[in-house]
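Severity: low
Component: inverse-folding endpoint
Summary: output formatting inconsistent between runs
Steps to reproduce: submit the following structure tokens with default settings.
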């Protein structure tokens, strides 16, 4: 296990997010005049910091202002970089042009999504798993669906999350009113069960020590750790939910990166249709991070305690709060699922996998301990004894490379960075060169034992 310690920098880049938020608020209050009589939403007051990725973007802009002539490389927020295959954009373009004709014009569509696309999603991703097209709700992305699911769940439920976890699960829970206040000593919100998922338990929670909650948020392949749950582990999770009468919200946004035969859907597990909702996306699968398209599956068998079908309530949520995904985006989604589209998308995914291997080889050759990266585009790199925001700040300052501090994903992410394989190949090569130079120079002053591992 590597032991490379990073010390706090005097640079403003290493300032804690809470201090930044406080100073920003004080500055805004000085600019403002009179106030309304509207009381601020108490749940929004509970949010401790800025949302992670806008905070990183803010620091990125600050760095560019300080170093205007450097080439900044992002291994951070996980945005895709490769062009969408022409077959897909051509279908989108044709659909858009047809909107200027009487024959081709389309207005509002079904809030749940185009029927043909819903059928294609069910057949392409769940063909052997009994998912029906009426159980597919097409959306503008998985993150939006997480918030719509929170509207469905309401403020009275209890939740559990993996630790570390994708921050939208926690922040949306705070906003909807499911949590208490943030506890500074533990770095946790009250009334959320944080399920530790680290090297000590193969990145899967010890369910024997996990108290019952109404809802369990679970992401596999996991963002940020890059780990994928095995079929045996997901059997345990489904059984745990059935015993406790809980619902699993299963995020499979990175399923296309799975290589080792691990489950790509929770519905590969017997009994999951009775306890699980699945959320997924075209964003990383097809490079639709800007196009915006995703889907949620709610099985007919998923029922409330009184026997009422949950799908009926989600239908009401969707038709009330959403006018449906862009019909141009849906045309693109349908093109993605054609035989030609799937083949072209696979080549792009392989490109990102090769990027990931370039970074993996670089980091492990430097003696760093690296987890994940086999079934996901993310590497989870350990810097024992260090604060992740300090590591982030020093790497940014010395190499002009953006990463993501692990503590932004919860207390279990402290001492880690998430590094992304999404990017252009020449940037991956250049980032590897900079990282080698940085760590080789730095370890002359801060030696650490050579030890590297990767098991998933």
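Observed output (run 2 of 3):
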């Amino acid at each position: 296990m590597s032991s490379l310690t990073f010390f706090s920098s005097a640079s403003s880049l290493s300032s804690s997010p809470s201090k930044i938020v406080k100073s920003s608020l004080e500055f805004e209050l000085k600019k403002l005049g009179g106030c309304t009589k509207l009381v601020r939403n108490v749940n929004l007051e509970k949010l401790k910091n800025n949302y992670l990725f806008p905070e990183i973007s803010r620091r990125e802009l600050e760095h560019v202002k300080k170093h205007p002539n450097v080439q900044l490389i992002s291994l951070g927020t996980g945005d895709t970089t490769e062009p969408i295959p022409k077959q897909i954009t051509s279908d989108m373009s044709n659909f858009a042009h047809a909107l200027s004709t009487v024959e081709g014009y389309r207005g509002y569509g079904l809030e749940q999504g185009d029927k043909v696309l819903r059928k294609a999603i069910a057949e392409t991703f769940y063909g052997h798993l009994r998912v029906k097209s009426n159980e597919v709700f097409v959306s503008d992305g998985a993150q939006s669906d997480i918030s719509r699911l929170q509207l469905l769940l309401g403020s009275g439920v209890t939740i559990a999350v993996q630790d570390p976890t994708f921050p939208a699960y926690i922040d949306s829970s705070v906003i909807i009113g499911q949590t208490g206040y943030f506890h500074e000593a533990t770095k946790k919100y009250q009334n959320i069960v944080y399920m530790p998922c680290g090297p000590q338990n193969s990145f899967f929670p010890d369910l024997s020590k996990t108290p019952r909650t109404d809802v369990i948020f679970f992401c596999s392949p996991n963002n940020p750790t890059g780990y994928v749950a095995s079929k045996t582990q997901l059997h345990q999770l489904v059984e745990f939910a059935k015993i406790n009468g809980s619902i699993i919200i299963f995020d499979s946004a990175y399923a296309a990166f799975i290589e080792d035969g691990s489950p790509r859907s929770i519905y590969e597990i017997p009994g999951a249709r009775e306890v699980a909702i699945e959320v997924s996306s075209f964003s990383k699968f097809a490079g639709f991070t800007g196009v915006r398209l995703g889907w949620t599956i709610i099985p007919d068998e998923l029922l409330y305690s009184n026997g009422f079908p949950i799908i009926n309530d989600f239908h009401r949520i969707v038709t009330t709060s959403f006018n449906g995904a862009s019909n141009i985006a849906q045309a693109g989604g349908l093109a993605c699922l054609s035989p030609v589209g799937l083949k072209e998308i696979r080549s792009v995914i392989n490109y990102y996998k090769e990027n990931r291997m370039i970074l993996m080889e670089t980091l492990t050759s430097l003696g760093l301990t690296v987890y994940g990266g086999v079934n996901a585009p993310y590497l989870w790199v350990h810097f024992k004894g260090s604060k992740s925001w300090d590591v982030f700040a020093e790497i940014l300052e010395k190499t002009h490379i953006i990463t993501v501090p692990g503590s932004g994903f919860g207390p279990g992410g402290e001492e880690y960075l998430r590094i992304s394989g999404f990017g252009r190949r020449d940037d991956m090569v250049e980032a590897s060169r900079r990282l080698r130079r940085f760590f080789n120079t730095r370890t002359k002053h801060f030696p650490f034992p050579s030890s590297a591992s990767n098991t998933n």
